[in-house]
From TrEMBL:
Protein family membership: Belongs to the class-I pyridoxal-phosphate-dependent aminotransferase family.
GO MF annotations in UniProt: pyridoxal phosphate binding; transaminase activity
Name of the protein in its database record: Transcriptional regulator
Signal peptide segment: none
The keyword Transferase is annotated on this UniProt entry: yes
Essential cofactor(s): pyridoxal 5'-phosphate
SUPFAM superfamilies from the UniProt entry: PLP-dependent transferases
Quaternary structure and interacting proteins, as annotated: Homodimer.
Domain of life assignment: Bacteria
One Pfam family of this chain: Aminotran_1_2
């Protein structure tokens, strides 16, 4: 553990839990938008009198009904999937941890986008891997990827192709095909982490990397119900090609035998109840207007010379303040003014960019977003 840093993000989240704080920090769904009634009905169904199996141990790969339902949803999104391709995990975070445990030996190299989702870096660090970042500026460059693969000989490439955490960036279809080609040429595993893919607010979906020629038998696709249903359920999944399944299955057994029988059954019942698509459509509508409110407010709030991403979905915007500013140094003043964000430096493994910050737009309605941006603007003006 000595080589793995604790998550500074979790510490910031602890400071921002008070209701006074307008927090743009966490990637949190708005609890007001949880389908409380639908989830209550689903739990009621699985807790019907006499239904004792939901309290029992169950199989490692997960609830058959839940796996069939996820396979069906993936098929409808253009990725033909059999229930046996899937392993249910305790949140998609566990899918990342299992993948690292199953595929990596100490000293192996992992390529990641820079900046990158912090807790994935922790998983790779814990597995003893050497993490090599793909440079930050602009979208991933397939030529540079090929060059780095030849030079660094990585075993695995970690990607968040849809609405990346933290930048909000989405990979084009062309880029996905190119990445698949490079991976096939060099025998590279790909981890395609996709917790946000169904939260698209504009534009057309691109194919999953797992569906691109050359990547089919070397991509582990990771998904989650955290952002589209409720993170407290801790239900995620991975879709693995045949060659990785046995190792992943053993890793899951050693981690926790299986994911909660009760919670899996409740999510399966929720999906069978037919409410999920309507619920996701409602989330999309609400989050799209929140993203718009944030995009509209940023020009006034941020100092001249700032730039920011304009995502097509997900939960995050990536801001770059003028060169001389340091988002980490400004955070204590922001917290005193009851507004929070995550300094961008936490998402870098190589040379960090202190002028960056990640803003999440999902946790508050548009009026509170405007209020939070006004406070952030005042703090940043004072810090110039
Ligand atoms: C990119 C990414 N992957 C995985 C996760 C883990 O999510 P969960 O374990 O709740 O499914 C998150 C959570 O924020 C994330 O942003």
């Amino acid at each position: 553990m000595s080589g793995v840093e604790p998550s500074a993000l979790r510490e910031i989240l602890a400071l921002t839990s008070h209701s006074r704080v307008v927090s743009f920090a966490g990637g949190l769904p708005d609890p007001e938008l949880f389908d409380h009634e639908g989830l209550r009905l689903a739990f009621e169904r699985v807790l019907a009198p006499g239904a004792r199996h939901v309290f029992q141990y169950s199989r490692t790969e997960g609830d058959p009904e839940l796996r069939a339902a996820i396979a069906g949803r993936l098929g409808r999104r253009g990725l033909p999937t059999a229930p046996d391709d899937l392993l249910i995990t305790t949140g998609s975070q566990q899918a990342l941890a299992l993948t690292a445990a199953a595929l990596l030996d100490p000293g192996d190299t992992v390529l990641v986008e820079e900046p990158c989702y912090l807790a994935a870096l922790q998983c790779f660090g814990l597995a003893g891997a050497r993490v090599v970042p793909l440079p930050a500026a602009g979208p991933l460059d397939p030529d540079l990827l090929g060059e780095l693969v030849r030079r660094e000989r990585p075993k695995l490439l970690y990607l968040i192709p849809n609405f990346q955490n933290p930048t909000g960036r989405t990979m084009t279809a062309h880029l996905r095909y190119e990445v698949a080609r490079v991976a096939a040429d060099h025998g590279l595993w790909i981890v395609e982490d996709d917790p946000y893919g169904e939260l698209r607010y504009r534009g057309e979906p691109a194919p999953a990397v797992a569906a691109c020629p050359g990547a089919e038998d070397r991509t582990i696709l990771v998904g989650s119900f955290s952002k589209i249903l409720a993170p407290g359920l801790r239900i995620g999944w991975l879709r693995a090609p045949h060659g990785a399944r046995r190792a992943l299955h053993i890793a899951k057994q050693t981690a926790d035998l299986h994911t909660s029988t009760l919670d899996q059954a409740a999510v399966a019942a929720y999906l069978a109840g037919g409410r999920i698509d309507g619920h996701i459509a409602g989330l999309r509508q609400a989050y799209a207007s929140r993203m718009q409110a944030m995009l509209e407010g940023l020009a006034n709030a941020l100092p001249d010379g700032s730039t920011w991403s304009t995502p097509d979905g997900g939960m995050f915007l990536w801001v770059r303040l003028p060169e001389h500013m340091d988002a980490e140094a400004v955070l204590p003043a922001a917290l005193r003014h009851n507004v929070a964000y995550v300094p961008g430096s936490h998402f870098f493994t190589g040379r960090s960019d202190p002028a960056c910050m990640r803003l999440s737009f999902t946790a508050h309605p548009p009026e509170r977003i405007a209020d939070g941006l006004a406070r952030l603007g005042a703090v940043l003006q004072g810090a110039r």
